[in-house]
Write a structure and sequence with these properties.
about 25% helix; about 550 residues; alpha+beta; single chain; elongated; six-stranded antiparallel β-sheet
C-alpha cells in the first residue's frame, strides 16, 4: 500500500503555500458566514443543530468557484465536532473509469497536511462489483483534491476520508455505494460537480437554473452536459430521495460573475441536502411549500414573475443586483436566495440613487428577452457602470447608494391619437409607465417618474424632451405604449442583506482549525478579474434597453 497521494493542482487551482491557502480559505468562509447570517441562519454553534448530510459543491479554481463552495461548507461550522468521516465523490476528468475507483494510499496530501484515508470504513465496498481499488485515476484528479482544504479548515485534522472517483456507471450503482457508507451524524457526504460548460453567459444562466431546480427536486437523471459530476450527483440524489430528504440551494453563479468573461462560461452551484424538512440553516417550510433556499420558503408553484405577491422575489432580485455591482467594486457578495420565478422570462429596470435620492444610474429593458435572473444582473451592471449620463460608480460611493428594481409587465400599445390630450386619456398618472416613439426617437419613463412630474402635460413634455424632441411636439403617427411595474426598494445598497458580525465563537473555531491559533477577521476581498471597466453603452431599442 502506497503512503501518500500527492497534490496535483496545488499552486494552480488554489495556492500552494500553506499560509496563502489558509488565508484564501479563511476569506471565503468568513464571507460565507456573513452571508449565511444575512439569510436568517441561527447563531453559529447553536446547540442541537442538525448537520447537512450531503453537500454538493463546485470544483474549479478558488478564484472561480471558491466563494460558491464556501457557502455550503460554512453550514458545517456548528456541527464540525461531530463529523468524523467524509465520503467524497467526484467525476473522472483525466482518466477513463468504469464504475467507481477507491484508492489504496494511506492519505491524500495537501499544503495544509495529509488527510487520512479511512480504509476500515471502506471495507464494505470490497463486496460491491462496481467498486475497484486503483490509485491511477486519483493521481491527476482535481475534483476531489480541491475540496480537501475546505474540509480541513472546517473539520480540522481528525476526520477520515473515503475518496471515490466515479466514472461510467448507473445512478443505482452509485446509490448502492452511498447507502453502504451512509452512517450516522458522524458521516458527511460531499459530491463535487460544476454545472454547464462553455455556453454564452445568458444561456448558461438559463441552463443552470433549470438544472438547479431539478436538483432541488432530487431528480436523479441529470445529464453530464448539464453537470460534469452528474454520475456521482445522480446516485447521491437517488439515495437522498429514497430517504425523504430536503435540498436547498446555497449559491448559483458562473465564471462570468467571478472572473468577468462572459463569452464562454462555466456554471457553479452549491447545495445542502438535509434530513427531513429542515436544519439549522433551513427553516421549516409551511404546509404546502418546500424549502428552496437558505432561510427562504417558496410556493411549490411559482407565481407570475410580475406579481407583487411573489414571496421573496424582491429580495432575490435586489441581492443579485447588489452582488453584481459589489463584485465589480471588489466587495464581497452575499448569499442569494433562490426563487422559482427567477427562471421565467422577464424585463427589469435597475435604478441607483444617491443618499439624497438623486438619480445615479438607471438602465433597463422594456421587453423580456431572457430570464429575470439574467436580466437584473445585466441591468445592474449597466446602471452602475455604463449609464452614459453618469461616470461609473466608484467604491467610495457604495455606502450612500440606494437600490431599486422594477419588474415590468408586457407593454400595451395605445391607439393612435390626433392630439396629445387624446393620448393622455388612456394613461393613468402614478400607475402607467409610458414608451414614446416617433421616427427613430424613442424614450420611456417608469411610473416612478410621476412622483416628480405629477401633471400629465409636464410628464409628456419631459418624455418628449428625453426622446430628443421639442416639448410641444406632436404628430399623428406618434406611437405610445403603456405598462405597469412591480417596484422593489432595497434602501441603502451597503445595508442590503448585511447581518450583524458573525459571533466570535465561529471565527475562533475556524481560526483554530486553520492552525496556529489564527483568528479570522473579514479580510479585504481580492478583486475578481483585473480587466478594466468595459466601455459599455445601453443598446438602442430594439433590443429594448433604455434608461429612466
Amino acid at each position: 500500500m502506497a503512503d501518500l497521494r500527492a497534490p496535483a493542482v496545488a499552486g494552480s487551482f488554489y495556492p500552494g503555500s500553506p499560509g496563502e491557502l489558509r488565508a484564501e480559505v479563511a476569506r471565503h468562509l468568513t464571507a460565507a458566514l456573513a452571508g449565511s447570517a444575512a439569510m436568517g441562519g441561527p447563531a453559529r454553534g447553536a446547540a442541537g443543530a442538525a448537520a447537512p448530510k450531503i453537500l454538493v459543491v463546485p470544483h474549479a479554481g478558488y478564484n472561480y468557484s471558491g466563494a460558491t463552495a464556501a457557502r455550503a461548507y460554512a453550514l458545517l461550522a456548528p456541527v464540525a465536532a461531530r463529523i468524523r468521516r467524509v465520503v467524497l465523490l467526484g467525476p473522472a476528468h483525466r482518466a477513463r473509469v468504469r464504475g467507481l475507483a477507491a484508492p489504496t494510499v494511506v492519505a491524500f496530501d495537501t499544503p495544509l497536511g495529509p488527510v487520512r484515508v479511512d480504509h476500515d470504513a471502506m471495507a464494505p465496498l470490497r463486496a460491491l462489483e462496481q467498486v475497484g481499488f486503483d490509485d491511477t485515476p486519483h493521481a491527476p484528479e482535481y475534483s476531489l483534491e480541491v475540496q480537501l482544504p475546505f474540509l480541513q479548515a472546517v473539520l480540522g485534522g481528525g476526520f477520515g476520508l473515503i475518496p471515490l472517483v466515479v466514472g461510467d456507471t448507473a445512478p443505482e450503482d452509485v446509490a448502492e455505494v452511498v447507502d453502504a457508507l451512509w452512517g450516522g451524524d458522524e458521516t458527511l457526504i460531499v459530491v463535487s460537480t460544476d454545472m454547464s460548460h462553455f455556453h454564452p453567459y445568458a444561456d448558461a444562466q438559463r441552463l443552470d437554473q433549470e438544472t438547479a431546480a431539478r436538483i432541488l427536486r432530487l431528480e436523479s437523471d441529470i445529464h453530464p452536459l448539464r453537470a460534469c459530476g452528474a454520475r456521482p450527483l445522480n446516485g447521491a440524489l437517488l439515495a437522498a430521495r429514497r430517504r425523504g430528504m430536503t435540498a436547498a440551494l446555497m449559491d448559483l453563479c458562473n465564471s462570468g460573475d467571478t472572473v468577468g468573461r462572459k463569452e464562454r462560461v462555466v456554471g457553479y452551484a452549491s447545495f445542502a441536502i438535509c434530513p427531513g424538512a429542515g436544519t439549522h440553516a433551513l427553516r421549516q417550510a409551511p404546509t404546502g411549500q418546500r424549502v428552496t433556499s437558505l432561510g427562504e420558503s417558496a410556493p411549490a408553484e411559482a407565481p407570475a414573475a410580475h406579481s407583487a405577491t411573489a414571496t421573496g422575489l424582491g429580495e432575490a432580485l435586489l441581492l443579485r443586483a447588489r452582488n453584481t455591482i459589489a463584485r465589480r467594486l471588489g466587495i464581497a457578495p452575499l448569499a442569494e436566495p433562490w426563487h422559482a420565478a427567477l427562471q421565467q422570462r422577464g424585463a427589469t429596470f435597475v435604478t441607483l440613487n444617491d443618499a439624497a435620492r438623486r438619480l445615479r444610474g438607471c438602465i433597463g429593458r422594456l421587453e423580456a428577452a431572457t430570464s429575470l435572473d439574467s436580466d437584473v444582473r445585466h441591468n445592474a451592471e449597466q446602471a452602475a457602470f455604463a449609464d452614459p449620463r453618469f461616470p461609473p460608480v466608484r467604491a467610495e460611493e457604495w455606502p450612500a447608494l440606494r437600490l431599486e428594481i422594477s419588474v415590468l409587465t408586457s407593454s400595451e400599445p395605445l391607439p393612435a391619437a390626433a392630439t396629445q390630450a387624446q393620448a393622455l386619456q388612456a394613461i393613468e398618472p402614478g400607475t402607467h409607465g409610458v414608451i414614446f416613439e416617433w421616427r427613430g426617437h424613442r424614450a420611456t419613463f417608469l411610473p416612478q417618474v410621476w412622483a416628480q412630474l405629477p401633471q400629465p402635460q409636464a410628464f409628456m413634455a419631459a418624455l418628449k424632451r428625453k426622446a430628443g424632441l421639442a416639448e410641444d411636439f406632436w404628430a399623428a403617427d406618434v406611437r405610445l405604449w403603456r405598462y405597469r411595474v412591480d417596484k422593489h426598494e432595497g434602501g441603502p445598497i451597503a445595508a442590503l442583506g448585511v447581518p450583524a458580525p458573525p459571533p466570535a465563537a465561529a471565527a475562533l473555531s475556524f481560526g483554530s482549525l486553520l492552525g496556529g491559533g489564527l483568528t479570522i477577521v473579514p479580510l479585504p476581498p481580492r478583486r475578481r478579474g483585473d480587466e478594466p471597466v468595459p466601455s459599455l453603452r445601453p443598446a438602442r431599442l430594439p433590443p429594448p434597453t433604455s434608461s429612466r
